Amino acid sequence: MDRATVTEKIIAAKVKDGLRWADVAQQMGLSKEYATAALLGQMKLTADQAAVAKRVFGLDDEETAWLQIVPYKGSLPTAVPTDPLIYRWYELVNVYGLTIKELIGEEFGDGIMSAIDFSMDITREPHANGDRVHVVMSGKFLPYKSY
Amino acid sequence: MDRATVTEKIIAAKVKDGLRWADVAQQMGLSKEYATAALLGQMKLTADQAAVAKRVFGLDDEETAWLQIVPYKGSLPTAVPTDPLIYRWYELVNVYGLTIKELIGEEFGDGIMSAIDFSMDITREPHANGDRVHVVMSGKFLPYKSY
Amino acid sequence: MDRATVTEKIIAAKVKDGLRWADVAQQMGLSKEYATAALLGQMKLTADQAAVAKRVFGLDDEETAWLQIVPYKGSLPTAVPTDPLIYRWYELVNVYGLTIKELIGEEFGDGIMSAIDFSMDITREPHANGDRVHVVMSGKFLPYKSY
Amino acid sequence: MDRATVTEKIIAAKVKDGLRWADVAQQMGLSKEYATAALLGQMKLTADQAAVAKRVFGLDDEETAWLQIVPYKGSLPTAVPTDPLIYRWYELVNVYGLTIKELIGEEFGDGIMSAIDFSMDITREPHANGDRVHVVMSGKFLPYKSY
Amino acid sequence: MDRATVTEKIIAAKVKDGLRWADVAQQMGLSKEYATAALLGQMKLTADQAAVAKRVFGLDDEETAWLQIVPYKGSLPTAVPTDPLIYRWYELVNVYGLTIKELIGEEFGDGIMSAIDFSMDITREPHANGDRVHVVMSGKFLPYKSY
Amino acid sequence: MDRATVTEKIIAAKVKDGLRWADVAQQMGLSKEYATAALLGQMKLTADQAAVAKRVFGLDDEETAWLQIVPYKGSLPTAVPTDPLIYRWYELVNVYGLTIKELIGEEFGDGIMSAIDFSMDITREPHANGDRVHVVMSGKFLPYKSY
Amino acid sequence: MDRATVTEKIIAAKVKDGLRWADVAQQMGLSKEYATAALLGQMKLTADQAAVAKRVFGLDDEETAWLQIVPYKGSLPTAVPTDPLIYRWYELVNVYGLTIKELIGEEFGDGIMSAIDFSMDITREPHANGDRVHVVMSGKFLPYKSY
Amino acid sequence: MDRATVTEKIIAAKVKDGLRWADVAQQMGLSKEYATAALLGQMKLTADQAAVAKRVFGLDDEETAWLQIVPYKGSLPTAVPTDPLIYRWYELVNVYGLTIKELIGEEFGDGIMSAIDFSMDITREPHANGDRVHVVMSGKFLPYKSY
Amino acid sequence: MDRATVTEKIIAAKVKDGLRWADVAQQMGLSKEYATAALLGQMKLTADQAAVAKRVFGLDDEETAWLQIVPYKGSLPTAVPTDPLIYRWYELVNVYGLTIKELIGEEFGDGIMSAIDFSMDITREPHANGDRVHVVMSGKFLPYKSY
Amino acid sequence: MDRATVTEKIIAAKVKDGLRWADVAQQMGLSKEYATAALLGQMKLTADQAAVAKRVFGLDDEETAWLQIVPYKGSLPTAVPTDPLIYRWYELVNVYGLTIKELIGEEFGDGIMSAIDFSMDITREPHANGDRVHVVMSGKFLPYKSY
């Protein structure tokens, strides 16, 4: 057994039982973004959060233990994602990559936007011409300091 | 001469004269994100917007014409970016990729968040523990329809 | 169980029973292009369409549930396809890629032809020197708008 | 001097003088698809067609000779195209690749749709919800024959 | 079950029973090149040819059905083959690639040598300094035609 | 100056003066295959053969010296060739790779067909349904010997 | 002119004049690690530090301006470095990668060792059997926090 | 059974029983870095050390024998690691690669820092602004000698 | 069953029973280099040699038959090997590649050192500063001949 | 100016003046292997050795200084070499890679054969069936030691 097996079982249970990530997240007291990432093997859960997952997805003790372990991260099977929805995000990084770097550099100086001290919120933005996906990301700016 | 030559000249002028993208964008009547992307060769400008660039960066007529052409997009020299700031964004797509797909799928059904009918706003979010980079993205949801 | 297992089972049933995609599509009330893509794990089906698949391919309830889930798309095992029929299409994109970009750009301006709001129809075109494959594709033009 | 240099000169002339591929194609007596591909270094021109290009783009004799040579084909700088418009076509091949193979196989048997005995026509398809890109492709079916 | 499973079974039976491709091909009334390619999952067989394979390799009905299906082609596990015998062929394409293109172009004009309307014959060529592998390949020339 | 510069100059002279590889080869007393490969930087020439090239292509002494040097071989810009004519050869290696290995192994035992002690002859094969490219290759079989 | 040109000029001046990175760093009031990285185009310098570089390496004003710009980072020409000294470091990451992850995870929990809030010190460690390279790295631990 | 199977079993036992690498290492009389690398299949153990592992992780005799075999090293599934913690180390090599080479070269001459005659120590460095990961690496300098 | 399965079984038997390649080779009347390569699936054995392997490793008849088959060669899981011992050999090819080519070319003319008509002997070379690995390789020079 | 420019100049001078690496090496008091590698930019020379190169190849002072700098190593343009002579060496590493690892492991234990404390000698081995390339390599064995 490894973490991938547990992830597969969680997804299969979700499909079979028609569960919703957002509902599970709520029961865990987590945002839907963090909870889903954790259940997909990208973040670790606390014992209490894992207990919710155990109940909801019908996991056994060993599987539940895996949810509390620091996982090897990376959720995509290829370096350039083939799935159109995920590719669009890759495309944004590719098309806007230098732009983002220039603008953060202009505002903050040399450094990065943290992908660790980070949160994300994805919501529906109603719009007359068709609803939009609204994403808010917040990452701490970490400056390079000379030494 | 090609588009890359013009981009290089624009950047060199910016470095030499200590210009700011945000200032140039304002003169063009554009967001700093769109304007910077355009000046870096990812978007096209209108004749009026190009005229601002011409003046600011000291371009000649032929160079200015290139700014109004549909460019071949893609701003990164490698498929996986090496620059740490840009890599963090790639990492977010990699770590959160399936999560994003699952949550958009759960809320909207099968489809994508458009990277074309799209806007982005990057701002400074003051914070006691260190300021944060705040990003808002809005992309139209485009559903797959059966036929 | 995952989506790939279901796809494999569908294909095996088709081979064993000598079924035709076009016939199954008709029973589903879908074009053969959309139906085949869906059965191969690239599109999702409605409950009614999945029920047809269940009956035709002898699937169980859990397998049928997988057909109604948003799938992770991408049907090829390598970035450059090795199969000659599919490679020819890749080759068209490679040889005509810039041409397509230039001509759509000339007619519509900067933007893309949607691969989401899209349909395709593949038919036999009788011809004295050997029949031809006739393909009609229709994708909504999506313009980049400045902001 | 090589073919790439001539292509670059043609594109630069087009940008500078505001020419349209469709107009040049008409003067050559060719479809806009074939003519553009040829001018971008993917097809060869006859002496007469090259003479038109010479006049329109201001080429010298040596450059004009290059237009009549069989070129090394392939118009994209990377195996997976980064430009969003061209990527969408790559995506179609990726998402629909197996579907296309299955349907052509079902209708014609084992073989390919030729990318050589081939033509393509790209036009604007007016539509109330936004105009569409309409593409017709016709390629001879070439069967594998046993021997 | 998929085509790869059947191929594996065929090879295992061949190893176990000490069969020869050339003998099987003869029983099928096919060249050894086509028959071997088909048995290795690269070409399809007719019902009669598949019946021979069924008997020789001890296949069941379902496995025999797979032999009559259009297969996804491509027999090598890596884009650049590691096996020395196959690599030498890759090397020939690499070293002589432009030469072949130039000479076919010089003789025939712009187009390709078909890999579909194609046959190959591999024989032993006795030679005092060591026998040679003699290969004859014949592929229809397919010209690009302007349109 | 390096070998690539000389190759480029040879090709440019050929285009400008409308030369034919086959004619130059004849003047050198070489097959068109070997001569073209050599002129394209894949084989070395003797002093006499290089003298012919010097005269025909208008090379100077230093350029002529480069033709007599052992070159770094490999004529293709990418591992998988994008040019359709050359790709078809790559495809043959991919589709028929295992078949070729099996048949040579069956006839000769473990070893390779030499790509060094090798010759190739490409000719036109007239045919009622369209002329064919006829290729004869002959490579010494080199057996692995145990030690 | 771009940053790479300036880097090249700095290295050429260093080779020509026999300068030492450690000496230049001292004049800048920086560690040799930070200063060298900056001079090689990986970090930015302050105006004062750049003024030292200007004097030492004989740069002009425009070149000096480039040293104060946030650079696009990444100093290696290939994803897997070919240089043996640098490869050994890549090898350490490859061989010890999971070990490092497990041990940091065991001590700190889920998170990373920052490569931004980071310093490195490389010194000579005298040793009877041959001196050793002694490296001390210190990076802030950044924990993933749930949200 | 192969080494990967044993590694997987060790990790699974650790997760199930909540073991700590540091504790197991202590029982083996090894540093936590060497012991963890060995248990993850990157180093070999002596019979005594393997006996500890046998007891702690509940291995059988055959599994224990595998721990004493020279393993095929390399612990990462991709050339560029996707896991953020490990990527930061890759990033350090990428960003500081040339710097490290220059500084070791300046101090020691041409050669490498050994990754074989090497040790590493990872500890917690308490810090008011957040604890840091403190890493000490020591590798023998190996000079290239002329011959 | 395929060749990889047999290789895996041989290695597992060797680990379990503490066998030595050199001893098995001696029983086969082969050099340790050839025998080991064969047992690892890179060379084929004669019936007599395979019979030794059968006895030593406890193989059944079918597994023994696989040892006498021409194998698909290539023993490394990645194009650039990650194992440090094997990587050093790759590094030698990379660092000394052009040197080897130049020196063989200078001594022999254009051609290759055969990797087929080849033998290798690896021995221990005692040395006061630490024993050395002594490797002797002998490969027939195969000249390119013009035709 | 960088090291590659100097290498290019050295090779061009060698071609133009018909020099031999072996002769230059002798004048430098070095083996032909080390000297050639150094002149091709893979090793550094002492001042005296560089002075020989200066005289022989007609270098100026700055170019001569570059020969005494620690170079960034790696002499091949692609990870898998396309040149047949060099590829054969790559093939040997690929085919015999695991064999080499097993045999060195069996004789010496876990460790590597150094590519730094290393020498190589390439000579002609006369043979009735055609002369052979005889290669002797000697690399210090470096053991992994536990810590």
UniProtKB/TrEMBL annotation, chains A, B, C, D, E, F, G, H, I, J:
* Reactions catalysed, as given in the entry: cyanate + hydrogencarbonate + 3 H(+) = NH4(+) + 2 CO2
- GO terms for MF: cyanate hydratase activity; DNA binding
Top-rank taxon, per record? Bacteria
Q: In the UniProt entry, which residues are flagged as the active site?
A: R88, E91, S114
Residue ranges occupied by any Cyanate lyase C-terminal domain in the UniProt entry: 75-147
Protein transport among keywords: no
Q: What class of enzyme is it?
A: lyase
Family of the protein in this entry: Belongs to the cyanase family.
Q: What does this protein do?
A: Catalyzes the reaction of cyanate with bicarbonate to produce ammonia and carbon dioxide.
Protein name, per record: Cyanate hydratase
Q: Which organism is it from?
A: Hymenobacter coccineus
Lineage runs: Bacteria, Pseudomonadati, Bacteroidota, Cytophagia, Cytophagales
Give the encoding gene's name.
Answer: cynS
